[in-house]
Design brief:
The structure is a single chain. It is built from twelve helices and 22 strands. Among the domains are: 152 residues, D-Amino Acid Oxidase, subunit A, domain 2 (D-Amino Acid Oxidase, Chain A, domain 2); 84 residues. It is α+β, with helices and mostly antiparallel strands. β15 and β16 form a beta hairpin. α2 crosses α8. The strands form four sheets. Strands 5, 6, 7, 13, 14, 15, 16, 17 and 18 form a nine-stranded mixed β-sheet that branches. Strands 1, 2, 9, 10, 11, 12, 19 and 20 form an eight-stranded mixed β-sheet that branches. Strands 3-8-4 form a three-stranded antiparallel β-sheet.
Length: 475
């Protein structure tokens, strides 16, 4: 019997696994997709929100502020990309300035530090290209940006380094109560566990309903984005938000940790929980809404990708976290924005609660530090030369856009929770994330995956089953 099974391999599930691994517990994560971070964690705004937006007293407010404070230390332990980047909520006129004052009061009540409202020359000094139509803005210096999928993968890898188990491509189809725990039934087998964590994202209501009467519904909300080349990456210094509405925080402009410019999202409820199409109408809305922020045109000709993601919006209006009415069944459901910022605090609290309930003690031998990931594109020339002198594969540049070497790809494949597909390589080292979107490097990545995984090239997948890239030799 397992001690704990976590259902869902997004950022909340992976961080929960990692915090659980610090206790004397046998833990396992089950994810139905072929790779980690394949849902909302893969396609969101990548913002570590400061915490001024959630209603005071809500779970969102509590976890947002706590999670935000955990990010700097956690990024050093797990070696994922994180960058402190202040945010500005722009007001266009007197009516929206009243919204800013309410957000300021709300943020201070939530415990957010350093909030202030900036105007005039002070504001243009913070954001030089800001439009003159912006009359004032709420400045939040404690916000940040990160790589959401990188956080999830790093957390799971560290958990596995400390003995946790991972099942990918395995769907949970049923849960039932046992005298001493919970039976987890999947499309591949059965597992018994003393405790189960529901971190299933857009499917968290369905997992809940396998054990309990229906109590909440996840309403899938689609958001569409533009990603612009790094030539546009320095147009904004801060994350720029519009005043929030009941639909969400609106369209934003933000630098990314990879030096690019992110624009989006829109927000619309959709019937499908996994289909993420983009459409001309939604993308036009994103472009027009984002254009208001700056006094210069947005260089949309530098677009390298458009994409969309699904947010798991609960009809309760708040996160659903902690013990349920079934002993041993714990919730991490309805984790929409500010879910990324909140994830470390949610995961830590869940792990503490489960450990107390199971009588588990902290491990003396737990290593909180993930093995450092070599990132050639962030090294000095001297550091590169030293690295190449020790391993010549670092001199073989596979992805010229992002300056990713063969050695980095090989390492990403062979780590715990390693890459098994072209998209898996892209998530872990960025090969294919640049201007040409893998137009040149993909054949080489396929060859490396074939060699390192010991499979024919026509069995190498882009993402999950059925996404083979090659069908066979033509000559």
């Amino acid at each position: 019997m397992e001690d704990v099974i976590v259902i869902g391999g997004g950022v909340v599930g992976c961080l929960t696994l990692r915090f659980l691994a610090s206790y004397r517990l046998k833990v396992r994560l089950i994810e139905k997709q072929y790779d980690l971070a394949s849902g909302a964690t893969m396609a969101n705004s990548a913002i570590v929100h400061a915490g001024y937006d959630p209603e005071p007293g809500s779970e969102k407010a509590r976890f947002n502020v706590e999670g935000n404070r955990l990010y700097p230390a956690l990024s050093r332990e797990l070696d994922f990309l994180y960058q402190p980047t202040p945010s500005l909520v722009a007001a266009f006129g007197e009516e929206q300035e009243e919204t800013l004052r309410k957000l300021l009061e709300r943020g201070r009540e939530n415990g957010v530090e350093g909030l202030s409202i900036r105007r005039g020359a002070e504001l243009s000094g913070i954001e030089p290209l800001l439009s003159d139509r912006v009359t004032s803005a709420l400045y939040a210096p404690t916000a940040g940006i990160t790589e959401p999928w990188g956080v999830a993968i790093a957390a799971c890898e560290n958990a596995m380094d400390n003995g946790a188990l991972l099942n990918l491509g395995e769907e949970v189809t049923g849960l039932s109560r046992l005298p001493d725990g919970i039976l987890v039934v999947t499309d591949r087998g059965e597992y018994k566990a003393r405790a189960v964590v529901n971190a299933a994202g857009v499917w968290s209501d369905k997992i809940h309903d396998m054990l309990l009467p229906h109590a909440f519904t996840i309403k899938p909300r689609l958001g569409q984005y533009y990603l612009l080349d790094r030539r546009a990456g320095d147009m904004v210094k801060n994350t720029l938000f519009a005043c929030p509405t009941k639909e969400g925080k609106g369209v934003l402009l933000s630098p990314s940790v990879h030096g690019k410019l992110l624009i989006g999202p829109d927000a619309k409820e959709v019937p499908d929980r996994e289909l993420t199409p983009t459409d001309a109408e939604g993308l036009r809305f994103v472009r027009e809404a984002a254009a208001r922020f700056l006094r210069v045109p947005l260089p949309m000709n530098l677009t390298i990708r458009t994409y969309a993601g699904i947010r798991p919006t609960p009809d309760t209006g708040d996160f659903i976290v902690g013990r349920s009415d079934v002993p041993g069944f714990y919730q991490a459901a309805g984790i929409e924005s500010p879910g990324l910022a909140s994830a470390p605090a949610i995961a830590r609290e869940l792990a503490q609660e489960i450990a107390r309930d199971l009588g588990a003690e902290k491990r003396d031998d737990f290593d909180p530090f993930r093995r450092k990931q070599i990132r050639l594109n962030r090294m000095s020339e001297e550091e590169k030369r030293d690295l190449i002198s020790r391993d010549s594969r670092y001199a073989v540049i596979v992805c010229k856009c992002e300056k990713v070497s063969e050695a980095e790809i090989v390492d990403a494949i062979h780590r715990n929770a390693g890459a098994r597909s072209v998209k898996g390589v892209k998530k872990r080292v960025g090969a294919g994330f640049g201007r040409c979107q893998a137009g040149f490097c993909q054949p080489v990545v396929v060859s490396i995956l074939s060699r390192e995984l010991g499979i024919p090239k026509d069995q190498v997948l882009y993402d999950g089953p059925g996404s083979e890239i090659l069908k066979g030799k033509v000559k």
